[in-house]
Amino acid sequence: MNRNCMNQNTNQNCMNQSISQNMSRNTNQGMMYQRSSSVSRAQNGCCAQNDSWSIPADETMIPNNCRADLMRFIDEVSFAAYDIMLYLDTHPDCQEALQSFRKYNELRNKALKLHAKSYGPLMLSSVDETDCSAWEWMMQPWPWELEGGAC
Amino acid sequence: MWHYEKRLEYPVKITTPNPQLAQYIMSQYGGPDGEMGASMRYLSQRYTAPNRTAAAVLTDIGTEELAHLEIVATIVHQLTRNLTPEEIQKSGFGAYYTDHTAGIWPQSAGGYPFSASEFQSTGDPVTDLTENLAAEMKARTTYDNLLRLIRDPEVADPLRFLREREVVHFQRFGEALRSVQEDLDAKNFFAFNPSFDAPVSCSSCD
After folding, report:
1. Does the N terminus or the C terminus of chain A have fewer Cβ atoms within 10 A?
2. Per-residue pLDDT in tens (0 to 9) along chain B, 206 residues
3. What residues of chain B lie within 8 A of the CB of A3, using their CB?
4. Domain ranges, ordered by start, for chain A
5. Which DSSP state fits B85?
């Protein structure tokens, strides 16, 4: 099977059947994006956003004054980019999905850079962005630590 | 090649320990339908994937399963922090504690160690992808079973995320299986193994 990656044999509506279906189905069933209201992430003012996972639209929404909010933004756009990537694996000619992937991946890269600069690197590729004389990679909280990502 | 990202795919923040729940949930770490078996299954099967779609789906879902393994381990770890000897004895966590204290070790809820015999890599892509469809449903059922027992929303929330991913993976594996079958003879998908019995083209017959 030889699939040309930029094959223009494109169904413009191809995303409607999957990505948005996954998202809306989850919302309808309350399975995935609805965090239980009793799970409060807002221990103090800076993390006081609503509890549903949402997919951020543009880079003006990148939080720049709260570590937990920025981490959550990274989680959200990373998930969007990843889920679209998986969709593209079986729908490689879908232009709508390709555009969405590029958008969320760009937001993700910008947010990862900001995190490295402001709080420390989450991956080795952003270690260069940190302004610190010590080895910050090892100093950052590990994701299983309860304290990790707290404001 | 893999790179580590210092975050979970979905955040886990459990403030109330519960060693009994940890004992159940650890089955999704090293149990028969857990994330360790899932990641090893897909990342092993991909070498005999017969087309671009199947190789990509196996690699990318196999990679996501490693992230799920880390989420499950984090849940178990946070449920077993700061335990008292009384809590350990009362909760039924004593048998696990005896061998592993509060360390993370891959076993089923019933105590059976993780085993590669819980998954297959047959080298036949139709068979492997069909196994993967069943595997995603078995993992989904296990998450359903766990969610019936869990009242703590801090524990249920990440498990619901993991459950939903099983459904999405099921969908993608179904599409991968169809892409493999589309390259085969629709009258007999099972005429040969496309990853082993390459159809012979006889030069003298061309």
Report:
1. N
2. 999 999 999 999 999 999 999 999 999 999 999 999 999 999 999 999 999 999 999 999 999 999 999 999 999 999 999 999 999 999 999 999 999 999 999 999 999 999 999 999 999 999 999 999 999 999 999 999 999 999 999 999 999 999 999 999 999 999 999 999 999 999 999 999 999 997 655 666 55
3. 52-53
4. 66-145
5. H
Query: DSSP assignment of B103-167, as one string?
Result: ----B-TTSPBP-GGGS---S-HHHHHHHHHHHHHHHHHHHHHHHHH---HHHHHHHHHHHHHHH
Per CB-CB distance under 8 Å, the chain A contacts of B56 are 89
Region class of B61: left (phi > 0), else alpha (psi between -120 and 50), else beta: alpha
Could you give all domains of chain B from N- to C-terminal order, each with its CATH number? 19-183 (1.20.1260.10)
* pLDDT < 70 regions, chain A: 1-56, 147-151
A116 in Cβ contact with A129 (< 8 Å)? yes
Residues in chain A with CB shorter than 8 Å from the CB of B53 are 1, 3, 89-90, 92
Q: Are B57 and A86 a contacting pair at CB < 8 A?
A: yes
Its ipTM equals 0.92
- The number of helices, as runs of H, and strands, as runs of E, in chain B is 8, 0
Distance CA B171, CA B57 (A): 11
